[in-house]
Design a protein that fits this description.
Layout: E1 3-5, E2 30-32, H1 34-52, H2 67-82, H3 87-111, H4 125-139, H5 142-157, H6 161-191, H7 193-208, H8 211-222, H9 226-251, H10 254-262, H11 267-278, H12 280-300, H13 309-318, H14 322-355, H15 364-384, H16 386-389, H17 396-415, H18 417-440, H19 444-459, H20 461-477, H21 480-510, H22 512-527, H23 530-541, H24 545-569, H25 573-581, H26 586-597, H27 599-619, H28 627-637, H29 642-671
Parallel strand pairs: 1-2
Helix pairs in contact: 1-19, 2-29, 3-6, 3-9, 4-5, 4-15, 5-14, 6-7, 6-9, 6-12, 7-9, 8-9, 8-29, 9-12, 10-11, 12-14, 13-14, 13-23, 14-17, 14-23, 18-21, 19-20, 19-29, 20-29, 21-22, 21-24, 21-27, 21-29, 22-24, 23-24, 24-27, 25-26, 27-29, 28-29
Amino acid sequence: MTVVVEKTEPPGGPESTRPVEEPAPAAGPRRIRRSLVIGVILVVWLVLFAVLRGKQTLSLAAADLTDLHRWFNDVNDSIGANRDSNPLFLYFFNEIRLVIDTLAAFVQELISQPSAGRPLPQIGWLGVVGIAGYVSWAFGNWRVALLAVAGFTFLGLQGLWQESMDTLALTLSSVLVALLFAIPLGVWAGLSDRFHRIMTPFLDFMQTMPTFVYLAPLTLFFLIGGASATIATVIYAAPPAIRITAHAIRSVPETTVEAAESLGATRRQSLTKVLLPMSRRTVVMGVNQTIMAALAMVTIAALIDAPGLGKTVVQALQSLDVGTAFNAGLSIVVMAIVLDRVTTAASTREEEARRSKNRFLAWRRPLLGAGAAVTAVLVYLSHTFVWAAEFPGEGGLGSSIAGAADTTTTWVQDHLSGVTNTVRDALTNGLLNPFQSLLTDSPWWLVGAVLIALGAVLGGIRAGITTAVCVGLLVATGMWSDAMTTLASTVVATALVMLLGVVLGVWMGRSALVDRVLRPSLDAAQVMPPFVYLVPFLALFGATRFTAIVAAVVYAAPVAIKIIGDGVRNVPAATVEAATSAGCDTWQIITKVQLPMARGALTLATNQGLIYVLSMVVVGGLVGAGALGYDVVAGFSQGQLFGKGLAAGLAIVLLGVMFDRITQAAARRTSA
């Protein structure tokens, strides 16, 4: 008998849950629900697990290496020995490193590091604050300018001025290089269907890879330091700008372009006079996303010796110094908020100016000229006088913040440890440990077969083939057991994300007031780099894998909540009204109408939740999460484990690709 798995179809449309009733021929195939097939797969897995537990698990001790790991180590040693003689390095990799190093050093010497025999940078704190305020005013508005001045001043009061400027310098250098390539590529992808099809898989792959993964291979070619950090940041931060720029170009109405061409405009004139001006706001939002991605990557690049706030956070996390980590993490948040608000305001300034009736708008240009003169004076003072160059004080505010964080941590551990330990132990022993045991103690071939089968059922044949390739490569990396441990944490955290996403997303989708209240907080949460989320949960739960899981849930939940909220809101009001008139109560409307009709949004939220969670779970290797994240960090710090860390990074990529392909294919099948 042939079994065909078929998606359920709704009454009156493709977004319901009732199966289509079709007359089946006597000799035709029997159709069953995918959920039943999945249930059978899981039951068979559990039965075989009970029989074969502990056999052929491919476990590997922390200090053990495979032949692949030793080969990676040999390659690393060979590259190090021939770096200054191999033509490929002499005339390619070393030259790229030199150019990037020169750019990053130039920006650092401007605002953060001593230069040209000076004990201080070319532009001191007063000049930087003045430039930040003026640029924010020129591209945004006076409110954003005040926020920028207050935010940058706060960085100095925390006693972290130089660390903050190092982070800002690397971020600006990376964004400059990223946009230099990303904007032209985005325009090209917007104009050319063929190039857009070519670029899309690469962009999907680059945005699927967690931040950790970029670091190890780049240190192989560019060494540890600021150059590798900048190059990694460029690679990580460029895809959003390319994708959003292409979308902006493609969103311009064709009739507008045709009208310009009918008036004799050349292709170049259509681009510069029509397409780019009309897509400017969206392109600026792409710049915003690039800046946020760059800031997140620069902080994590502290693992390869990038200077700045990230290094302070990493050192504090490794020594469990919550106060210092909190103070530095707060600085990262403040910088992220300032950069986000400035670029967001820049994207909406012209539209707001057109709608505004402020009489001072007529004086904007003269005022900007006066502001430029004042800023130039501040820059001169900061270049000339020590009091305007070196931030005054000894960072008393930062010491107070760190002390308060330490005091709060001690109080929490003394008074709430019973509650936090109970929550941690309940979820760890009741959910995480059994699932992890199922993955790590089952024979590798059994888990691989289950993953392939689930991929094929959920995403189709192509997703199943992709999963099979990923499973085979995971076995080849020698990191199977650690990959399964990371997989367990990722799936558990994603389940919690979706639970939170459904509850709050449905609430947002059904209530405009709740949406207005929650959305700003969710937007702000997405601005913060991953490192920042580890600090408060380190204080609550200590250095355990549960800390990484909770941080991953909080990190990934905002995007899932917003996607589900938008999906519920987009359910046609007529459908909801029809269900209400038929006598359905609120619970029935949610479970029988809105959620089934928002299945596409639910699948997309699962996709994004998995990718966000995976990136955070591996970062949790810094606070006791172990598994692949720990392997990557150990590879940076212990030379003999470099090959193992590189293999762990490859395993993370394979998990990300597998998650992404299955969930994206499932989303397409759901919406089809």
